[in-house]
Specification:
Number of helices of chain A: 9
Oligomer: heterodimer
Structural class of chain B: alpha/beta
Strand content of chain B: 15-25%
Order of helices and strands of chain B: EEEHEEHHHEHEE
Largest sheet of chain A: none
Largest sheet of chain B: 5 strands, parallel
Structural class of chain A: mainly alpha
Shape of chain A: elongated
Largest interface: A-B, 25 and 29 residues
Strand content of chain A: under 5%
Number of strands of chain A: 0
Strand order of the largest sheet of chain B: 5-6-7-3-8
Order of helices and strands of chain A: HHHHHHHHH
Helix content of chain B: 25-40%
Distance between the termini of chain A: 23 Å
Amino acid sequence: MIALLTRDLRLAVRAGGGFGLGLAFFLIVTVLVPFGVGPQTDLLTQIAPGILWIGALLACLLSLDRIFALDWEDGSLDLLATAPLPMEGIVSVKALAHWITTGLPLVLVAPALGVLLNLAGPGYLWLFISLALGTPALSVIGTFGAALTVGLKRGGLLMSLLVLPLYVPTLIFGAEVARRGAEGLAVQTPLLMLAGISFGVAALLPFASAAVLRINLR
Amino acid sequence: MDLTASDLTVARGGVPVLDGVSFALAPGRALVLRGPNGAGKTTLLRTVAGLQPAMAGEVTGAGERIAYAGHADGLKSMLSVGENLRFWAQVFGTEGISGALSAFNLETLEDRLAGTLSAGQKRRLGLARLMVTGRPVWVLDEPTVSLDIASVALFAEAVRAHLGQGGSALMATHIDLGIPEADDFDVTPYRAKPRAALQDEAFL
């Protein structure tokens, strides 16, 4: 398991691994929004939590099809399936590697990008917390989508269509935590819901991902 | 423990390709599947390796005892030869890759990126992976593709060494490897009669 995680992380940071792609996308989206909306700082303050969450979500989506596609193409997925690792473990490790290379950097830079959108003072902490709690769910759900579409030629678009609706609850509660935090309201309820979604999908979805992956390998 | 297949029916895309296949493979022996292209050798090997379920019949002595090598070598082009092998050694919980490197004459290439190897060198690395798995039953699909004569000899030697240690090998190949412990198994007589898919693909 640890060997698989180290291999995936090592591959991600080597040339062609796509590390930083999501991060750069997130940066560009966040920079573009103020240009599109115009110099109204009140409006930007209002929409900042939502924009940052949507940006992070799309950046996450961008790198999902790499989770299994590369291993599928070079045949290592077949070999992993015959290795002594349980398939559920493989998909969990893959999701974890995706989160470390994509989700975690997004969480870390999001507060800095909040400045560009004139995020309200108390919002920075809650934006950070909501992303830290919510992005693992994005990776786990995305791994399920990637497992569903592995082996399809140009399955990336289909995967986006399958995964985006599944992202809705995470987005609603994640952005709600950030928004309430920014406005100084109580965040407990959406925060608990967000935590529930994250832990729930992390516990249950790997079984579904493993099952569809087994079917796709036939 | 023998690897046995009894009355096995294997299917590709829901359509049976081989029907009633039975064989037994004892430790120290090799079985070479023969048959024209499209006969179902790959499908049979994938079923034995547990990558797809059998339509009927059963395989015993497989599962966790199998090391499978398919058409693709499963190499990461941005990892070096040594890193690729060490990864699989860790996954299979074995130690030491030097034996595998020397058996396939890869020592001088250990620090090269796998992506910069030639096709034959990649194949040799893919076969060296079998040695680090430590599994007793090798299931090989066309292992000699893109190997030159000298490398085929290396491979035959590695297989014989593996058989000598009580391992066994099931492989599909079209060439003569010169392994005296190997028996031929022609799959052509087991070709399934054409019939419609038994399951509805849409609901799989």
